[in-house]
Amino acid sequence: LGNQQASFQASFSLDTSVLSSMMSMARTQQGSLFRAPGSSSDGGAPGYYLFASNPGPAMGAAELVNMLTKTQPIIDRQLTSSEPKNIVSDVTLQLLSKADADKPQSLNQLNEDIINLIAMFFDTVLDDPQLPTVVQSLVCRLQIPLLKVALRDESFLTNPEHPAKKLVNIITEAGFGVDESKPLERDPIYRKIADGVQTINRQFKSNDEVFIEVYKEIRGQLDKEKRKTNIVEQRTNQAEEGKSKIKHARATAQKALYTRLKDTRLPETISSFLTNTWLQVLVITHLKFGKESAEWVEVENVTIDLIWLCQAHEDERSKLRKQRLMPEVLERIEAGLEAAIDNAESRAAKVKAVEEALEELTEEREYQDGFVELSDDQRETLGKSELQQKSWDEMTALERQQTKYEELSNKFYTEARDLPIGVWLDYINEETSRKTRCKLSAKIDAETYIFVNRIGLKAIEKTRRQFAYDMQFKRAVILDSAPVFDRIMRKVINHLKSVT
Fold first, then answer.
1. Beta bridge pairs of residue 372
2. DSSP readout, 260-279?
3. How far is C-alpha 182 from the geometric centre of its chain's CA atoms?
4. Beta strand pairing status for 476-478 and 458-463?
5. How many helices (H) and strands (E) does the chain have?
6. Burial class (CB in 10 A: 0-12, 13-18, 19+), 314
7. Rounded CA gap, 401 and 408, in Å?
């Protein structure tokens, strides 16, 4: 049995002899999980019925399929107007009891095994947290059609390309990102799936062609939406990359200024000019030319020279240099401001204020009287407030322990780093407990993770450290991307394995 199950999990096909062997083993090893029709479950798994033990004569598969066809539209109406539920075994029991309720007809063992397998499949669908409730409901409306297919066509269990299997997979793929909080009647994908399910229940008798046609319609709608989504997602990522470049440029400029100013006292006018106006010049220069450019070196040198002009210089050589350098620096400042300030009068006013501040630095007054250190607001402007945290990679081991992410396991940090683009997950808001289904769309600078919704718009943004932390504490749950029919049947087989 173990080898048979391993083979099934590899190929996700199952012939009738393997099915019979598995069910027989389960009945032998764990008979309490199976129950006779009409008996209470006593805590056993629902949908496991021993139809073969019924007292009446055996009903053939063809006759049962014909009876299921007649009840198919009725059952669909009932399932459409109620919560999704598994009705496979109950409907089978009702049909077997139709002639004589006291002596319901029996089934041969193979048909019983097939019915139980389909019942287990839908039990697992209803327990699957990855499927939105509305998608569970749509899939469950296919219980009678799929049961008929399984009873009539043995290739349903052996053929991975069977039209009915492909239809279940495309329905769940298309419905994967359905937002249940929004009106479903406005969702073209949901409407297409619902229409397809209704078509199956109205038209399917014995010809699989209807499965193929509905599959093509849903596939076409899904491909159409994906083309639109790809465009939106691309624009989303481009916008986020632009934001990231600005963020990176600002961080580089902040670091460059803070390195020069953190241990320096300057006239308040000069300090304010550097941490506000000149900071913007540095940011714009970085965006336009990059950190390795001559333009960046120039604006950094202006910072260095301006700070030098504010210091006390006693030797004659330095005094002469100061006289020569001051007008030159003012010209370079004005040239730099052209990138940040369009208005010529505003630029001139900024330069004039710097010039007046420098001229006040005379040898007659006590030097550095009135000079100031960086204020708390200025430190915050430069990204160095007390609340500002280092990146995870910059922290020492002790600093990591002292952060709110001290419990973050390296395993999850590594998993977040290696997670491929395109993975879907459920993200649970810690404060509201609201679940958002989203896809990892981009890793910008390897540190900023962008998640988008089904239509490609940004849903969530996290740092890698935040994302790893959320995975560790199950606020971010990665979803299984395997085709749902295969994934559900794997669970069913694992369940059978557990009871044998």
1. 266
2. HHTT--EEHHHHHIIIIIIH
3. 19
4. unpaired
5. 21, 7
6. exposed
7. 9
CA 458 to CA 151: how far, in whole Å? Answer: 46
Residue in 262, 263, 259 with CA at minimum distance from that of residue 282: 259
User: Do 84 and 51 touch, CB atoms closer than 8 A?
Assistant: no
Least confident of 6-15, 74-83, 353-362: 6-15
* Cβ atoms of residues 88 and 122 within 8 Å: yes
The percent of the chain in helix, strand and coil, each rounded to the nearest 5, is 60, 5, 30
Of 297, 300, 296, 288, the residue nearest 246 (C-alpha): 288
Complete DSSP assignment for 354-399: HHHHHHT--TTSPTTTTEEPPPHHHHHHTT--TTPPPPTTTS-HHH
> Mind listing the pLDDT tens digit for each residue in 261-316?
998 889 999 999 999 999 999 999 999 999 999 999 999 999 999 999 998 888 88
Amino acid at 20: S
pTM as predicted: 0.75
CB-based contact 218:174 (threshold 8 Å): yes
CA angle 363, 369, 374 (to 5 degrees): 125
How far is residue 110's CA from residue 114's CA, in Å, rounded to a whole number? 6
* pLDDT class of 492 with cuts at 50, 70, 90: confident
Residue 73 in contact with residue 202, Cβ under 8 Å?
A: yes
Place of tokens 């501040």: 357
Tens of pLDDT, residue by residue over 178-187, are 877 788 888 8
Give me the pLDDT at residue 372, please: 86
Separation of alpha carbons 115 and 125, rounded Å: 15
Residue 489 to residue 327: CA distance in whole angstroms: 80
| Token couple for 301 | 């040198």
Q: Give the whole-angstrom CA distance, residue 394 versus residue 188.
A: 47
Residue 202 burial class via C-beta count within 10 angstroms: exposed 0-12, middle 13-18, buried 19 and up: exposed
- Residue 354 confidence (pLDDT): 93
- Using alpha carbons only, what angle is made at residue 15 by residues 9 and 18, rounded to the nearest 5 degrees? 75
End-to-end CA distance of the chain: 9
CA atoms 483, 489, 493, 496: torsion sign: positive
Q: What would the mean pLDDT of 207-232 be, rounded to a whole number?
A: 94
* Averaged pLDDT score across all residues of the chain: 85
Quote the tokens at residue 243: 């934001």
Sequence-distant (6+) residues with CB within 8 A of 330 are: 351, 354, 355
What burial class does residue 383 get, using C-beta atoms within 10 Å of its C-beta: 0-12 exposed, 13-18 middle, 19+ buried? middle
User: What's the confidence (pLDDT) of residue 40?
Assistant: 42
